[in-house]
Amino acid sequence: MIDLSNVSKTFTLHNQGSAVIEVLSDVSLTVASGECVALTGASGAGKSTLMRMIYGNYCAQSGAIRVGRVDLVQSEPREIIRLRREVLGYVSQFLRVVPRVPTLDVVAEPLRAVGVGSDEARTRAKELLTQLNIPERLWSLSPTTFSGGEQQRVNIARGFAHPYPAMLLDEPTASLDAANREVVLSLIEAAKARGAAIIGIFHDEAARARVCDREIDVSRFTPGMSSSSEAVGHCNESAA
Amino acid sequence: MTPLLSVQGITKRYGAHIGCADVSFDLYPGEVMGIVGESGSGKSTLLNCMAGHLRPDAGSVVFDTRGHGPRDTVTMSEPERRMLGRTDWAFVHQHARDGLRMGVSAGGNVGERLMAVGARHYGDIRDKAVDWLERVEIDASRVDDRPTTFSGGMQQRLQIARNLVTGPRLVFMDEPTGGLDVSVQARLLDLLRGLVRDMGLSAIIVTHDLAVVRLLADRLMVMKDGHVVENGLTDQVLDDPQHAYTQLLVSSVLQV
Q: Which residue of A has its CA nearest to B224?
C-alpha cells in the first residue's frame, strides 16, 4: 500500500549561506495493508521528515513515494489533495483548524469531504468524541481553546473519522492519560483489522510493542552533514 | 479532465516596467489556488488580466465555458466577456465598496445580479436575495438597508453574496480579508471554505497573508518582480519552500 524506493531529502537554506543539509538518503521501505510499522531513531534522525514526505508535505529530491497508485514525488497538487481526502490520513502532533469552527464539525469534516451526508458525518463524529472522552458540552466549541491533551484527542477523532486505507500517525499517544491511550491503541488495532497500512512514530515503547508489526530505524538512512552549496534539484519546474 | 481555466504566457508591461511576465498554469474544477507575493510583485496585475479587467500584452486565458467549451477570453468580444463576468465568473474586491452599489439596498445588490441574467419575478428575486443574505450571516431584517449602514465585515459578506448568487464556477478574489479585524477575518474564512466546498467552486485568491492561503488554498503560486518563482501544494510550499524568496517570505512571518 505504501512503497518508497530510493528516496532522498536535502534542505537548502538559501538565506543562511546556502547551507545544504542532507537529511535522508536512499530510503526504501514497504508497508502492506493491515500492517503497522514504527519509525524509530533518535531525535533528529528524520522520522517526522520522512513522514511528512510520505504525506507530500515535504518534497523529495529523488526517488518514488507511492501510496496506492499515486507517486507523490511526481504528482500534481490536485492528485495529492485527492489522495489525502480519500486514501491517506495523517494524525499530526498538533491540531490546525479554522478558528471558531465547532469541534463536532472539525471531526466530521473529513467525512463531509468525501461526500458523507451531514447527519451521518456528525453521528460518526459524536461516536468518536464520546469514545475519546471529550465531554459533550465541549462539542459546540472550537477546539482552539482546549487543553493540549484534549486537542490531541480531537485531532485523533478527526484522523480516524474516515476509514483511510493508509494512515500516518505522529506520536498518537503522546500527552494522553492511560484510559485515552487505551482508546487510541484500540482505534489503531481496529484500523489494522480493517486493512489499513499504518506508519507511526511512537516514543511510548509499550504502545509500539502492542500495535506495531515491525520497526524501521530511520537513522540508517541518515547521511553525515555537508556544507557544500552545490545546486540541488527543485521540487517543481518553475522554481528551477 | 479539461482544465476550467488554462492560462498560457500571460505578460503585462507598464511601459518599461514589467507587471507580470510569462505566467502559465492550469486550474481544474474545484481547485482553489492562492497567489502570494509582496506588494508590487504583480499578483493583482495577473488577477486583473485573468478576470478581463486588464488586457494582457501577450498570452491567453482559456476558460471552459458551459455552452461552447474552451474559449480564449482575451480574444473574445467585450459583450461575451461581460456575460461571463455576470454568470460563470465572480470577482470579490478587497474593498467591498468597489464591488457593491452603495446607493442600492442590500437585497437590491444581490437581486441586481440575478436580474442581469434574466430573472424577472420580484418575489423570487427577493426570496433568493434573503436566502443569500442568511447564508452569509446577514440578518434578513437588513434586506432593505443600504450597505453604507453596514460594518466592513458585513459589506464584505454582502459582496460575496452578490457574487455567488448566480452560481458562478470561478471566483477571483483580491485580498478578500484585507482590512478586516482578525475575528471578522476568521468568520469570513470559515464562510468562504464552506461555500467553496458546498458549491464546488474553483477560486483564485490573491493575498499577502500566508495564513489565509494555508486555510483556503489547495495550491500556491509565489510571485516576485512579476515572475512566478515557485508553485505547488500549499502546505508543501509553506513548510518546505524551495526558492530563496519563498524561504525569506515564510521565515518573515511573525509567530503569534
A: A239
